[in-house]
Amino acid sequence: YADSAMYLAKRSGRRGFRFYSKELTIDAAKRLALESELRRAIERGELELHYQPKVSLCSNEVIGSEALLRWHRPDVGLVLPNEFIPVAEETGLIAELGKWVLREASRTAAEWNAEGSALHKVAVNLSARQFQFHDLAATVHGILLETGCRPQWLELEITESLLLEEDDAVLSTLSVFRSMGFSIAIDDFGTGYSALSYLVRFPIDTVKIDRTFIQKVMTDRRHAELVKAILSIARCLGQQVVAEGIETVEQAAFLQANGCQLAQGFLYGRPLPKSGMASLPRYLNSH
Ligand code: C2E
Ligand code: MG
Ligand code: MG
Ligand code: MG
User: Fold this and answer.
1) What per-residue string of b and e applies to 115-152 under the rule 16 or more CB within 10 Å gives b?
2) Which protein residue's CA is at the shortest distance from atom 21 of ligand 1?
3) Can you give the pTM of this predicted structure?
4) Could you tell me which residues are beta bridge partners of residue 122?
5) 182 closest CA partner among 100, 102, 115, 273
6) Contact 202, 163 (CB under 8 A)
7) Distance, CA of 233 to chain centre
8) Where are the alpha helices (DSSP H) in 123-220?
9) Bridge partners of 175?
10) Which neighbouring-strand residues pair with 52?
11) Could you report the per-residue pLDDT of 156-209, keeping only the tens digit for each?
12) How buried is 235 (Cβ within 10 angstroms: 0-12 exposed, 13-18 middle, 19+ buried)?
């Protein structure tokens, strides 16, 4: 494993070199195993999307969901995305993984919207790195044709790290998505390198306030004020707001009182496999 550890150590040593330790060697070995298994996960059918309901704060009506990737890793069990998405991003596997996610979410959105009368939007997370590979807009267009999904049935969630690059190519891809009819959400807003100017410079329809802010609205006045300010800015710019990670009735009431339209969180429902999501009632009772 020494050679592969060296290789990984070099690759992760962007901010200077790292010391070689036994620990790193074990880590690197684990990562390599993860990488090669992940490479085969798609063909082996080990990936699954779970869906977490998004509700209207005033009616508790389910208006859509967010697709969240799960990996049933042999001999390990259910693995959550934070454990493998970063590896997929570093190795470039995210291109293929992301395509699989888009295709699967499109199929589901097509199914749910063909069946029901109310629009059910499925939100899909995109990694910044997916924009660096091939023509993402063309790939997405192909997937729509293949699955019969309409852009109106999907929302694309991006993070600030993408906008940070201030790349013309990113801006033009986002504009193409917008003109195709997709809505675009900025995820985890308020964390990382948040710049308010992103909200006007890029075509953003929806702002998702990060869970770390929502968690503190009832206990920390300054966080509460910050959330109110974000809601007010989004309102002025005509953007919708989703509060992420709502866990209590008090948090929901605070957000609703301050004009937040949409919510997502364990209070309403945890991410569920497709079948579980399909059998949820249209209104979720959170009280
Ligand atoms: P995210 O996009 O911000 O997704 C929301 C995460 O918060 C999910 O974690 C969800 O299970 C969790 N969550 C929702 N409500 C609550 C709550 O009330 N309390 C708490 N404590 N947590 C809550 P998950 O599924 O583990 O996903 C983590 C992250 O992995 C996502 O954060 C997203 O950045 C990334 N991810 C997930 N699926 C994909 C994917 O298909 N592609 C890409 N590129 N990234 C993905
Ligand atoms: Mg998201
Ligand atoms: Mg989020
Ligand atoms: Mg988040």
Assistant:
1) eeeeebbbbbbbbbbbbbeeebbebbeebbeebebbbe
2) 245
3) 0.91
4) 65, 154
5) 102
6) yes
7) 22
8) 136-147, 160-164, 168-180, 198-201, 211-214
9) none
10) 66
11) 999 988 888 767 888 899 999 999 999 999 999 988 777 788 899 899 999 999
12) middle
Size (the chain), residues = 287
C-alpha 100/C-alpha 85 separation (Å) is 13
What is the 109 CA–ligand 4 centroid distance (Å)? Answer: 22
Residues with CB under 5 A from ligand 2 (ion): 125, 157, 187
Pocket of ligand 1 (CB under 6 A): 52, 68-69, 80-82, 85, 98, 101, 125-127, 157, 187-188, 211, 244-247, 264-266, 271
DSSP 71: E
CA of 207 to the centre of ligand 3 (A): 10
Q: Which atom of ligand 1 is nearest to the CA of 98?
A: 42
The ipTM is 0.98
Kindly give the distance from the C-alpha atom of residue 187 to the centroid of ligand 2, in angstroms, as a whole number.
5
Closest CA to 235 of 255, 249, 215, 253: 255
